[in-house]
Structures are given as C-alpha cells and as structure tokens.
Amino acid sequence: MENIKLAFTYNQKQQNFLSTILSYEEINNIAAAAIFGKNNLIGYQRRVENKHKDDIVKKLANENISPNSIILGMNQSVFNENVRYRNDLDFGTGQQFVSFDVNSLTNLKEDQRLRIIDGQHRIEAVKAYLEDNDEDDIKNMKFNVLIFVVNDNELEKEVDLFININSKAKRIRTDLAIMAKYNIEMQENSDKMNPISMLIIQTVILINSSENSKLFNSIRVDPNDTSGIGLVSVNVFLQSVGSIFKVMLTKGIYTDELEIMNDLKEKKEIKKLEHKIYELSEKLVKELFIPMWSDVFSKWPETVYQELQSNSTTEDNDGIKYFYNNNFYIQQTIGVKSLSYVMADCIKSEGDLGCASQEFATIIKDSKVTAADWAVPPYRVTGKDTQNPPRWTGAFKGMSSEAGFKIVKEMITGKIPIRE
User: Fold this and answer.
1) Taking the CB of residue 173, how many other CB atoms lie within 10 A of it?
2) 77 vs 21, 263, 266, 315, CA distance in Å?
3) How many CB atoms neighbour CB 10 within 10 A?
4) Rg of the Cα trace of the chain?
5) Vertex 285, ends 284 and 290: CA angle to 5°?
6) Which of 298, 308, 316 is nearest to 229 (CA)?
7) Which residues, 6+ apart, have CB-to-CB distance to 12 below 8 Å?
8) Contact yes or no for 137/6 (Cβ under 8 A)
9) pLDDT tens-digit map of 254-273
10) What is the distance between the alpha carbons of residues 29 and 50, in angstroms, rounded to a whole number?
C-alpha cells in the first residue's frame, strides 16, 4: 500500500530542496542521524545528549516542542529513483510540486536512507516518550520537513550544512563533522585515499572523544567554532600523532595490518576498510595514547582538572565538558609536540609499542620538569613538593617552534638542564 506525500521543490544557488509535512512515525521510518562509529567513519554526529532529550520528553506531555523544521539529507540517486515531478499540479502558486511514496523510502538499503541533519533530539525524544505512553496524537505529530538533496559524490556539502547550523546558531561541538568531512573527501576520490591518513584522523577523533582521557575535548578541530573549547589545533595534533606513526612505520609496527588496509583500498572494499581502520585506531588509543597521557598527568596532576569542567553559563545547559587547564602549556602546542617527540624516540629505540610505553613512563616519572615549568606566565604554581618548591614560571615560554619543541623534549628527558 502506498503512502504518497506531496512536496514543493525549490533551488538556492543550484542547491535543490524539498519542503513537505511528515509525521514523527514517517520520519523515524525513513531517516536516522549519521552517527560516528565503528561501521560509519563518515558519520558526522554524536549520539544524543540525554539531558537535552529528557528536557524535550518532559515538554511533550503538556506543550508543543520546537516548531523549527526537521532537516533531512537525501542522496540525488534516491531522489532520481523515488521522487516524481508533478507537472499536473500547480494550485495557482507557480511552485514546482513533486510526490514520493514514504513506504518506498522506508525500504531503502542502509547506506541510501535519509539522514537527519537537524532535529535528531526531537525525534529521539518522541521515541523515548512513546516507550511509556502509547498516544496516537504523539505518534502522528506533524513536523515541517526540509529535504536537502545532495549529489552522491558531494556529501561534504551536507556536512557543511550541519556545521553551519550547529557551530553558529547552537554552538554545539562540530569536531566529528569536520573530521568526517576529511574522510568523505578522501572516499569520494578513492584513487587518492590514504589509509594511513584515515587511521591518524580516526585516532585523533577517538582521543578527543574519550571521556576516559584527560584529553577529552582538548583539540580545537573547527577554527570557526565559537564555543571557545579546545587548546590545541587539530593540525598540530594530527602532526604529533603522525610523527609517532612515522616512526612506527620505519620500525615495521603493524605492517601486516597496513598491507591489509592497502589491499582493501585497491579492491575498493570501503566498508571493510573503514571497519579495519576503526579497529586499529581504537587499539592504538587504548594501548598507546591513553596510557601515554595518563603517565603525563600522573606526573603533573596540577596541569589538568581532575573533574570535568563545563563552558556552560546557565543552570539549564550542561555545556561542553573538558579537563584541560589553559594555565599550562602541557595540552597546548608546546606540550603536545614535545611529548609526542619523546614517545617517538622511545618507539625508535625500543621497536615495540609495549616496551616503548614502559620507557616513556620511566622517563616521565624521573623527569626533573615540574608543573611550574609547564605553567603559562604569570601563573604561579603552589604545589606541595618540597624538593621542587613553588617559583615563578616561564621555563617553556617562547618554545613555540620546531627547534623549541625539541629543546623542551631534551629538558623532559634530562639531556639538557631546565631553563631558569
């Protein structure tokens, strides 16, 4: 049985949109948010934030929720197969009308389904409400829906729309979207696809997204992000992780895995390649990068907050959470670069990640560098270490070049004295 819907279509600078009305149930059947995960490396959204969703659930019982349009993304190939131009309809408006069968969109393959670009929390809130309340009027709640039609090989335009909506109007973190865009652009030009670059990108995504790490949300992925969150740019962090990967490759670490990834690339088995990249990046984060930075913050606990902080200025907004302390260089370019070079040297000397991690831990534990050395002037550290009494800071001030990063590395390892 068909479920035909009418929509009118319009263009903005060669971009095609459809405008229609759909119920919650219809939207839920044909669309889902593009969530980042093991099986979707080009997903550009996080899972729903529960507090936001729960606030909407509470409103559903007594009041209307946001009337703003739900925005969906549709591949051009799906449009071509399922949307019919209705030149027989005009209604005196001068608009171009189209029609489509909701049921045919419901039965699409997973990678062809429509994507929720904006409105994910509202749809998830209605779903949660209906778990405890079987109310037809909620199930059939109507939403104005805009459908953004995007060429199959230009999905980055959809990501750009998501970024524009969320980074400017809502000030939501868009770091996954920025990183997903990198991967989308590589996949759309498969000849230039670089599995190692994709592996580095996924590793950085997982580091920045892990609440088990004090690096959580410390990477500033989007230069246009107005939330003020993040201490170190994504380019710096990519370079730092890349310097470690470079040494790993010269030492033959994960050679077999990289050969498998290159083989999958040649065979254009993209989903299998994505899965392999995610598995390896997850392993590296768990076994190398989180332990590495845990050693760092165990040595210098004053340089990071022990409890999650928030950028929220109101009680009804949880804001964006983080651990970093911007009074210290340790999670800024100077610290990220120099500490990554220490780890790279450990891998170079040991040739094994386990042994390299042990050597790194020993170097950090025995280092004469104090939290005061990491502090940004004129911040004064008032620690309890009687052997390294509090003093005015500035040891690493001005070390913001490649030569400076290597000097800081030598100070950490004790090869040169710490500058007074």
Assistant:
1) 21
2) 22, 28, 25, 45
3) 11
4) 25
5) 130
6) 308
7) none
8) no
9) 999 999 999 988 888 877 88
10) 22
Nearest to 237 by CA among 269, 203, 280: 203
Closest CA to 334 of 409, 275, 273, 230: 409
Distance, in Å, from the CA atom of 135 to the CA atom of 143, rounded to the nearest integer, reads: 17
Q: How do 232-233 and 4-12 pair as beta strands?
A: unpaired
Spatial CA neighbour of 321 closest among 234, 239, 230, 190:
230
d(CA 258, CA 317): 43
Q: Which two tokens stand for residue 323?
A: 């651990």
pTM of the model: 0.65
Query: Using one digit for the tens of pLDDT, what is the confidence trace for 299-324?
Result: 999 999 988 888 765 554 566 788 89
Q: Which of 36, 34, 41, 35 is nearest to 277 (CA)?
A: 41
Name, in order, each residue with C-beta under 8 angstroms of 30's C-beta and a sequence gap of 6 or more.
72, 102, 105, 106, 108, 113, 114
Q: Which amino acid is at 395?
A: A
pLDDT score recorded for residue 174: 57
HEC profile of the chain: CCCEEEEEEEEECCEEEEEEEEEHHHHHHHEECCECECCECCCCECCCCHHHHHHHHHHHCCCCCCCCCEEEEEEHHHHHHHEEEECCCCCCCCCEEEEEEHHHHHCCCHHHCEEEEECHHHHHHHHHHHHHCCCHHHHCCEEEEEEEEECCCCCHHHHHHHHHHHHHHHCCCCHHHHHHHHHHHHHHCHHHCCHHHHHHHHHHHHHHHCCCCCCCCCEECCCCCCCCCCCEEHHHHHHHHHHHHHHHHHCCCCHHHHHHHHHHHHCCCHHHHHHHHHHHHHHHHHHHHHHHHHHHHHHCHHHEEEEEEECCCCCCCCCCEEEECCCECCCCHHHHHHHHHHHHHHHHHHCCHHHHHHHHHHHHHHCCCCHHHHECCCCECCCCCCCCCCCECCCCCCCCCHHHHHHHHHHHHCCCCCCC
Sign for the pseudo-dihedral over CA of 372, 375, 377, 380: negative
